[in-house]
Design brief:
The structure holds 2 protein chains of 2 kinds. Chain A is built from 13 helices and no strands. By secondary structure, chain A is an all-alpha fold. Chain B is α/β, with parallel strands linked by helices. Among the domains of chain B are: about 100-170, no CATH class; about 245-335, no CATH class. Chain B has an 8-stranded mixed beta sheet with strand order 6-7-8-3-9-10-12-11, sandwiched between helices. Chain B has a 4-stranded antiparallel beta sheet with strand order 2-1-4-5. Chain B is globular and about 70 Å long. The interface of A and B includes residues 213 and 301 of A. The structure holds adenosine-5'-triphosphate and magnesium ion.
Chain lengths: ~300, ~350
């Protein structure tokens, strides 16, 4: 198992390196520069700024230098926010995004998985149709519709919750619900599918023939295998919640990574874009590794290799 | 009083394409320690008969329409789910056709073996585990004390069927229902599995319902035989009666298909045609379209009634063909008919 993890970590590093290289090239190939602005800047001052950030060097050299820095955990200065480094920005906003993301994911699991199990067990009854139609609606509504809708209803009409900002626990509710509901819908459908597949297996009949009651059949015989599709989806779900946070953090004015990412891209803040891309990619790589480990733990027919 | 007395068991599936009359008025009984063989071609309703007794029919679309199945004085078909759970796995156990899919791949063999014990006996897990190991040894699994902790995928098909037998018999049930326990296995393993079932049956005095489509398997191991076709009972009786004095054309034809009873070098005999489509109502005798005997009268008519020939031996008395002659002469005649034009050409 250790070998498996080491190997997968190594693979992950290579993936990250690739992502870093591609992003670097794409950023460099984008027209304009981080330092162009509406105000005219004297050419000699611009040259000085470019020299300060290393932009006077050839591309290859810049790549090597920045990669060396990143490997030491230093993502460089923000090209736009002159007095802050990328690392500082991440340190400030990462916890915000982690909080929003994990609460959303938790909400998605807590709502989606039980709904899926219930729907599978009570299939073709209203306990199946109701959650499944709701989840279909959830999947069809993009977050940029759901977000403002929730803000309108709970914030402006009912005046129960704040619609923007990030100051106390009540500020988490709407954005986390917006993000979470969408993925709850997916988890519900995947769990239902997985559980139905298990419940139709021959060995469920064997268990019934032994006199095992239905609830034991669900928990003991079917849950492990039935959850595998949902667990496999955790990796993509995390990726989705991260990219979803770009939208949601902007809608609800949350000072998280997503908002910084959007701003960095618009401002051509090269170092910040690179740093955040690598961070997001690393999170997805780690999540996928965790998912793989859990999968092997659940399914005795899989082996680490 | 017999251990199991089934009367007029009728199970239909109400599907979108119509009513599938999978089991249509089947009756039989079984004494303690006895073995009943249920034979018939694919689709004749053997499995559905077994599942109906255990109430394992998926409902809907399935429904047990009528009948009784008195087991130890109580009707299995009327039991509440709770009563039923007490009988299943304790008094009646079941083994299934495909050992590759009948064990849960996510749970250890040990967990699955002791489940019925935990469910039905007041036993701590240590004692249950010991019993599980013992049960595995009894069905001939070497190194049982280690292998009990394996997962099903670490066993071969034959080994898994042994595990299934051990699992079914761990509570020493009164009745074991074995639905084609060897069909999915290698020919070499089939005999071993049958041997183990027989041996455990002798040890424990269990009554067995053995489902098979191979009349040859029945010959060696059953006291009684029920011949089914199109969901109906065609003939039933003691093994001797069915083998030496078969009355129904279908039983006779089925007997002709036993490979070991056929002359060497001859082409294997198979009954021409296909089993009936039980999703359509069957008029008269279900076997009529494939029956090799000379037909008399129109095939439309009343369903043949069960009629006793001798004590314990009855058949669906068919009046649509003249089945007085032995099947050999009928088949020989049919062969001649086919052969004649060829001779003429030569
Ligand atoms: N769940 C179901 N829904 C609809 N029809 C069914 C269902 N289960 C069985 N049947 C039908 O019932 C009839 C009898 O099936 P059954 O499985 O009892 O046959 P069998 O004698 O066991 O055959 P085999 O030798 O192939 O196992 C078949 O026509 C089958 O299509
Ligand atoms: Mg069958």
């Amino acid at each position: 198992m250790l070998k498996f993890i080491a190997l997968r970590l190594l693979q992950g590093m290579l993936v990250l390196l690739g992502i870093y290289a591609v992003t670097f090239v794409l950023v460099a190939a984008t027209p304009g520069s981080p330092f162009s602005s509406e105000r005219a800047i004297a050419p000699e001052i611009l040259a000085q700024i470019e020299a300060f950030y290393g932009y006077d060097k050839p591309l290859g050299e810049r790549f090597i230098t920045s990669l060396g820095n990143v490997l030491q955990g230093e993502f460089g200065p923000s090209a736009v926010y002159a007095n802050r480094t990328v690392t500082q920005i991440i340190a400030e906003s990462f916890p915000v995004s982690i909080k929003l993301g994990s609460i959303s994911l938790l909400l998605a699991l807590v709502l989606g998985v039980p709904a899926g199990i219930l729907a599978a067990v009570k299939r073709n009854t209203w306990l199946d149709y109701l959650p499944m139609s709701v989840s279909m609606a959830g999947i069809c509504l993009p977050t940029f519709v759901m977000g403002p809708l929730l803000a309108l209803v709970f914030g402006l009409i009912l005046k129960m919750l704040p619609v923007a900002g990030w100051y106390g626990p009540e500020y988490v509710v709407l954005p986390a619900t917006t993000l979470g509901l969408y993925y709850a819908a997916y988890f519900a459908r995947l769990t239902r599918g997985g559980m139905l597949e298990m419940l139709n297996q021959d060995w469920v009949r064997t268990a019934r023939a032994k006199g095992v009651p239905e609830h034991t059949i669900i928990w003991k015989h079917c849950l492990k295998g039935g959850l595998i599709p949902a667990i496999t989806f955790l990796g993509p779900a995390l990726a989705g919640i991260i990219s979803g946070s770009f939208v949601v953090e902007t809608i609800f004015q949350i000072p998280g990574l997503g908002q910084w990412f959007v701003r960095a891209a618009l401002n051509r803040d090269d170092f910040l874009v690179l740093g955040l891309t690598v961070l997001f990619a690393a999170m997805i790589v780690i999540m996928n590794l965790l998912v793989d480990i859990v999968q092997v733990a659940l399914n005795p027919r899989l082996k680490y290799d | 009083m017999p251990l199991l007395d089934v009367d007029d068991l009728t199970t239909y599936f109400h599907t979108r394409d119509g009513v599938v009359r999978a089991v249509d008025g089947v009756s039989f009984n079984l004494e303690r320690g006895e073995t009943l063989g249920i034979v018939g071609e694919s689709g004749s309703g053997k499995s559905v008969t077994c599942y109906s007794l255990m109430r394992l029919i998926p409902e809907p679309p399935g429904r047990i329409e009528r009948g009784t199945a008195m087991f130890d004085g109580r009707d299995l078909l009327q039991m509440s789910p709770k009563e039923l759970r007490k009988v299943r796995g304790d008094k009646i156990s079941m083994i299934f056709q495909d050992p590759m899919t009948s064990l849960n791949p996510y749970l250890r063999i040990s967990t699955q073996l002791i489940e019925a014990l935990q469910m039905h006996r007041d036993i701590d897990s240590k004692a249950a585990l010991n019993k599980a190991i013992e049960a595995l040894e009894e069905v001939g699994i070497p190194g049982a004390s280690k292998r009990v902790f394996s997962y099903p995928h670490e066993f071969s098909g034959g080994m898994r069927q042994r595990v299934m037998i051990a699992m079914a018999l761990i509570t020493e049930p009164d009745l074991l229902i074995a639905d084609e326990p060897t069909t999915a296995l290698d020919v070499t393993v089939q005999a071993q599995i049958m041997e183990i079932i027989k041996q455990r049956q002798n040890d424990l005095g269990t009554a067995v319902i053995l489902v098979t489509h191979d009349l040859g398997v029945v010959a060696g191991s059953c006291d009684k035989v029920l011949v089914m076709y199109g969901g109906r009972e065609m003939e039933s009786g003691s093994a001797d009666q069915i083998f030496y004095r078969p009355r129904h054309p279908y039983t006779r034809a089925l007997q002709k298909t036993i490979p070991s009873l056929q002359e060497k070098g001859q082409e294997l005999f198979t009954i021409p045609g296909l089993p009936p489509d039980v999703s359509k109502p069957i008029h008269g005798c279900a076997f009529h379209p494939r029956c090799p005997y000379p037909k008399i009268g129109s095939p439309e008519g009343e369903r043949p009634q069960l009629e006793d020939i001798e004590p314990g031996h009855c058949w669906a008395a068919c009046g649509f063909c003249d089945s007085s002659a032995p099947i050999e002469t009928v088949l020989a005649k049919a062969d001649d008919h086919v052969a004649e034009p060829v001779d003429g050409d030569a």
